[in-house]
Amino acid sequence: MxxxxxxxxxxxxxxxxxxxxAHTALFNWLFARHHGGTFILRIExxxxxxxxxxxxxxxxxxxxxxxxxxxEGPDVGGPHAPYIQSQxxxxxxxxxxxxxxxxxxxxxxxxxEELEERREIMRAxxxxxxxxxxxxxxxxxxxxxxxxEGRKPAIRFRMKDHGNTVIHDLLRGDVPYDNSLIGDxxxxxxxxxxxxxxxxxxxxxxxxxxxxxxxxxxxxxTVPHLQLIExxxxxxxxxxxxxxxxxxxxxxxxxxxxxxxxxxxxxxxxLPQAMVNFLALLGWSTGTEDEIVSLRExxxxxxxxxxxxxxxxxxxGKCEFINGQHIRTAPIDQLIDIAHPILAKAGLLETDLSPxxxxxxxxxxxxxxxxMRTVAVLxxxxxxxxxxDYEYEERARDKWLRRPETPGTLDALANDLAALESWTAESTxxxxxxxxxxxxxxxxxxxxxCRAAVTGTTVGPSLFHLLELLPQETxxxxxxxxxxxxxxxxxxxxxxxxxx
Length: 500
Ligand code: GLU
Description:
By secondary structure, this protein is mostly helical. It has helices spanning 19-34, 53-66, 89-101, 112-124, 140-148, 196-206, 222-232, 262-267, 272-280, 295-301, 316-329, 332-345, 355-368, 394-401, 406-418, 425-439, 444-455, 463-468, 472-488; strands spanning 6-9, 38-41, 105-108, 154-157, 164-169, 173-178, 185-188, 211-215, 238-242, 245-246, 312-313. Helix 9 crosses helix 11 (316-329) and helix 15 crosses helix 16. Helices cover 44% and strands 9% of the residues. The structure holds glutamic acid.
């Protein structure tokens, strides 16, 4: 790319960081990093009522968590500071003035109630509810009368009435829009704040943004933007509108489809590298069969010509699958750091972890990592590592715990294992096999009931490596407890059905 590439992520801080916004941020960041360009973070807080500091923090936290750094932005500064629009109000004044002077903008005294009333009438007539441009040519007397009523004007931009505005979209080609469908738009509210349409155009120009990459839901906004750019005599940036994110039912992604807040994925224990991988695949493809890639590999292989304009399905199952693949190779310390607070919150692990307990947790995770799609499963189907309070699944009851010979087998296992002098995977294996031999049964007939009793499940990692990670007395007492429950008939009732 010949020119120095400058892109921006420009969120409105009016809530949590939606995964759709994270997706847009990621694609801009990848585009910048691939081409050695500049990635700008700009906070578009022109909605004075809905913008919050908390939301700005959520944006910083979310981007940092994903590993997306910005070269210019509110906290890091840059040549076009400030990067928060509410701190740029003075800069916009000059541009309103230019439009007012050239006759492309005018004062509008219509009140919100009047506008709503007229929109209602248009809707009732089956017309698109656009502004009827009635303040376009007010006489001095009319203006004076409004002022005398105490009304404060907004500033409106005079949109073109005829012809088409054509968006040259890098992903979609030329997209024409009929100008007659859009009425004049407000660019400065009565509060003195700009509207999004205006500040985005002015700031993209002042910040020398070369490419505007954003979601498809913004495509119709590009019509007033292009007209404003032309009226202000600015050079238009190149536009690329990314395909929408949809739920599995092919409707626009919303909270109906599950978690749409990026922070929720962090809380659920998703790895940032997996989230980045998953989000990148929503519209970009690796070009090979292998979809599990690192951020570095994505940067190397990313370009807009590999990005599809088609909508992408945000499939939670795929997100989990990708997370599971990354868990296999993630550094153990990262997995411990993610798992610990989740386990502590669930009351399964102490808040202050001693070095020995941390090392133990690392061993548990290592043993489980090939089977986990998220580390949060440690609190559900692998909770037996942390507590005696686990359930006996129906499969375990049905296959092993309701057999008449099982209580005897479990007692024998308890006695033998409790007497072992060393407690390792090797010694427990030898112990369990010795019990099978003494009872004259095959190894499996001791191993499976042992697993069912000590974990409540029929599936899991190598039994002996698992036993090694539990205290010897815990294993013995669980075997005895389960033998009792078998005898008392408590396990004759149907048990819960296993998740995985
Ligand atoms: N502030 C807009 C939003 O949060 C994005 C603006 C843009 O990318 O042009 O949706």
